[in-house]
Design goal:
Elements: H1 2-5, H2 83-105, H3 120-134, E1 138-141, E2 144-155, E3 158-167, E4 170-173, E5 179-183, E6 186-197, E7 200-208
Antiparallel strand pairs: 1-4, 2-3, 3-6, 4-5, 6-7
Length: 210
């Protein structure tokens, strides 16, 4: 999410987190594989320059239950409805909330099970948060608020979800307590691919919407 470019770009000197945000939802920058390292997308462990939630390529969610590879997210058909679509919406809403918590406390352990390596935004966001906090720094602000989560399409087994948020103003501090990066509040939009894998919903692709 916003921290991917911001966390990854806005936290370019380490602005990679939210996500919380790799907060998005989007939630532009981070961050969906091998992580642990203001927004989250729900958007790299080095402070990066402006808090745009993600300048990374948008991955393509595959219709299968396997992680998707980076690419363009395509959408097909009318907006899905029913209990399963509602469950997907609830899952993505929870992802954004989890990104916000990670941005505040640096703990990305609860984020990792929520995405695959195909979600580049998720991966970068988590890496940015982990890197900043493990180095003794922290983020203030950069949270995803006023979130609107919309399940707008489905292709095969992949649900397409759009998250629109207000990412609050943020600052990134190093271990000495010096501000090394910061950004203003901004409206952000992220698109994610969501699949059910081994009985659990996961983000399989994602990035900042154009």
């Amino acid at each position: 999410m916003r921290f991917t470019a911001g966390l990854a770009n806005r936290r370019s000197t380490t602005r990679a987190v939210a996500v919380v945000a790799g907060v998005v939802l989007g939630l532009s920058a981070s961050a969906c594989g091998g992580d642990s390292p203001q927004p989250a997308t729900m958007d790299t462990p080095t402070a990066k320059s402006t808090p745009t939630k993600s300048a990374t390529p948008t991955p393509t969610p595959s219709p299968s239950a396997s992680p998707t590879k980076p690419g363009r997210i395509e959408t097909f058909g009318p907006a899905p409805t029913g209990p399963e679509a509602a469950a997907v919406r609830a899952f993505v809403t929870r992802y954004v909330t989890t990104v916000n918590k990670a941005i505040e406390n640096g703990d990305v352990s609860t984020l990792r099970p929520m995405y695959t390596s195909g979600c580049l935004d998720c991966v970068q966001l988590a890496a940015s948060i982990r890197s900043t906090y493990s180095g003794g720094g922290k983020f203030t602000g950069g949270l995803y608020t006023q979130n609107h989560v919309e399940v707008f399409s489905k292709s095969g087994g992949t649900y397409m979800v759009r998250v629109r948020s207000l990412s609050t103003a943020w600052k990134q501090y190093n271990s000495a307590g010096t501000v090394i990066n910061q950004g203003p509040a901004e409206r952000v939009s992220y698109t994610y691919g969501v699949q059910e894998i081994s009985g659990n919903w996961q983000l399989t692709a994602g990035g900042k919407s154009q």
